[in-house]
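Pilot study result, target chain (253 residues):
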Amino acid sequence: MATLIGVLKFRGSVGNLTVCKYKSKKGLVVRKKKDKMDKKYYKNSPTMAPVRRNNNEFSVAKKTAILINNAFRMNFQDFERGHLYQRLSGLFKVVMSKDLKSEHGKRTIREGLLHPEGRELLEGFDFTPKSRTSDFYTGAIQMNSELPAISLKGLTSIGSGMTKASHIEFKALQLNLDLNSWKFIRSMSDPILVEKKDIINEEVMLTYQDLDGLRHLSLVFLCCRSVKEEAGTYYPLNGGQNFNIQLVAFTVF
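Predicted structure:
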């Protein structure tokens, strides 16, 4: 690398040289462009084998994250996803590392989630870090044993942390992923609006249509949104703190 200290004029080709400016250096810097990696070398070289294995697994993690991110975007257009796609990609890459049955480069999300540590990683993932579940409701949440439904039982408060909301809207979302065709199908319950208040032992039942197809991975979410009533009309409140998604259950097929 060389530093340019005077006027430099070119006529014709300058090969693989480039001129750039750095904040930390005075003047312009002349440097050699980095050579592009040869595709045949990348595919066949033993030296690149670890890189190929990492890229293969990251591609799977990335595609899975895209599916979930796209499903949320389709169902909740005003949902501030932030860096959800990037965080999910990182999550699934770590989940794949829990697959102890497959060799590096061929590890799968399915096997990773069957491992207790992989399961804990997904169960503990915060899909909406800007909001807190306890601000929307406090009570027990469980899957209904007889119906495809989420049950909220023993609710003791609704919207205690939502100062501008008059109601909380609850929805259940089932999302099934096909990790071969990279497609998803979804089913959502009808919304239930519950007035913001302190209550005792009230139950909310969110029933959705159970999905049979595309079932490598099935996820069930509870979705909460702050809503404000004005003159009999209900308006969803904007901002990441006014929306919450909680993973309730998932099944690996």
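One observation from the pilot: The longest helix spans residues 49-75. A full batch analysis is planned for the follow-on phase.
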